[in-house]
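At this stage, I put together one protein's amino acid sequence and its backbone structure tokens, which the following lines show:
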Amino acid sequence: MVTNATSLGRSGLFDWLVQRFSALVLLAYAICILGSLALTPDLEYESWRAQFDMPAMRIFSLIALLSLCAHAWVGIWTVTTDYLNEAQLGRAGTLIRLLAQTVCALLTLIYLFWGIRIFWGG
């Protein structure tokens, strides 16, 4: 039996909604980037930089980055909960799962802060 140690009181419906909503945000962002590339075939660094210096693009990029982190966390949590448990790994399963989730959460936070610094740090 899987314990509720790291779900932080979330429900399966909430996780499902986070995954679907974040996927839609990431799809919209990908379409925006690909559309920008398609509409400007002679894209140079200056124009690319100018596009990402616009406040709307920075905000959209931040929303996409937050969506990516949320999407990744729900996926990581689901996979580790399903496959790193006592039924699969014996008595150490819970400890291994918590360790794996902690490492993944820290990496996700590092990537989030790094991405924020890239988009907003100048």
Q: What stands out?
A: Residues 12-120 form a domain with the 3 helical TM bundles of succinate and fumarate reductases fold (CATH 1.20.1300.10). The chain has five helices and no strands. The mean pLDDT is 89. The radius of gyration is 18 Å.
